């Protein structure tokens, strides 16, 4: 079976897991019945548990689904502490359903898979040794990758049913009122964790900062929490802004960012009250700095900025260049600290942010989205999940979700090292080409032929070459040559959902 982006899909797994093939970026107007969690009624003050061992013994049983958030990114200490206890307790056959998996989690997840503790995973992404392990057939069942908005949708619909959520927070009181804005381990918005807190049958908070009751403002509320555990440390906020959220000094990435800025400012969407989101990746994050000067020069302000937030974005808020920040996650300590002091930086959950089965997600109001990519093909399909070697090394994140903006820009270098970024066909389709309007490289831009209005608006920007995407692909190939075709087995190791829950692609096991 093939879907509408011409990807071969595993018929047996589709029948087994009740999947429909991806058809269109148009979500339609469905009526959705949402689920509700079980409530373990508590009338007293007995929520504080003395240790992780105690709370795991009270909550986790064989065959359950457990979840975590990734707001600490590579500074997370909670995940490994909890998983260590679960593995040592001999618990088996768990489904791991975090909002995403970061590098500090890899070793213990691999150990848990080998010991049968984890037999299923659903996440936004994975990198490093875990991605390599899964790509080479390390787990029997395929991983299911979902965007942030799709994860919210799946939780609300009951497709992901969380039995126990373990949520690290920088503060909490004895009944579980907590936020991400105070304490030594602040990370700002709890946007992804809020879904788990609302829908998990049991919610466990872990904190190194037990404060007086009642703790306000409360992002997670005592009405949602079953247990509170005090630990020595929940995380290192200085490690939030690492990896994919670094700030670039690379001349190539800065040139790409300047070209992206030129595309935005010459588009019909750069006007008073426009809205925008920047993704992770050096060039995408650098756009914010160029955009600031362009807004000052044009004497315009933005109505809101969305998504993962950085200090350059909160600086725009302080300067009055952005009226509101709608914050689902903070990508650095500066942005996290800003949330505590500025009421115009609004914490939002992943459903409000990007759930397609909603009465109005924030992504539906975006004028401009600037996103990065591992690969883009000549049909404008984008891969942010697997490398040129076929190994899982990325995350969907909010990529599919934000790509519905009026102007969706993909920024990427033409080649990385000796590897082409613009290719005839991407290794894995994550975001369909119908969502993508402009591709920006250091050699010029390509405009989706379906956007005749943008071709007219952007074709005469001074110093910005406009090329057919086939020509960019040929230029990339000329620089690095044709790669040896990848070799895969027939076994499916991961499934890629589109944001509406349909199947857009699969990842096969890499042949050694």
UniProtKB/TrEMBL annotation:
<dbReference type="Pfam" id="PF04223">
    <property type="entry name" value="CitF"/>
</dbReference>
<protein>
    <recommendedName>
        <fullName>Citrate lyase alpha chain</fullName>
        <ecNumber>2.8.3.10</ecNumber>
        <ecNumber>4.1.3.6</ecNumber>
    </recommendedName>
</protein>
<keyword id="KW-0963">Cytoplasm</keyword>
<dbReference type="GO" id="GO:0008814">
    <property type="term" value="F:citrate CoA-transferase activity"/>
</dbReference>
<dbReference type="GO" id="GO:0005737">
    <property type="term" value="C:cytoplasm"/>
</dbReference>
<dbReference type="InterPro" id="IPR037171">
    <property type="entry name" value="NagB/RpiA_transferase-like"/>
</dbReference>
<dbReference type="InterPro" id="IPR006472">
    <property type="entry name" value="Citrate_lyase_asu"/>
</dbReference>
<keyword id="KW-0808">Transferase</keyword>
<dbReference type="GO" id="GO:0006084">
    <property type="term" value="P:acetyl-CoA metabolic process"/>
</dbReference>
<dbReference type="GO" id="GO:0008815">
    <property type="term" value="F:citrate (pro-3S)-lyase activity"/>
</dbReference>
<dbReference type="GO" id="GO:0009346">
    <property type="term" value="C:ATP-independent citrate lyase complex"/>
</dbReference>
<keyword id="KW-0456">Lyase</keyword>
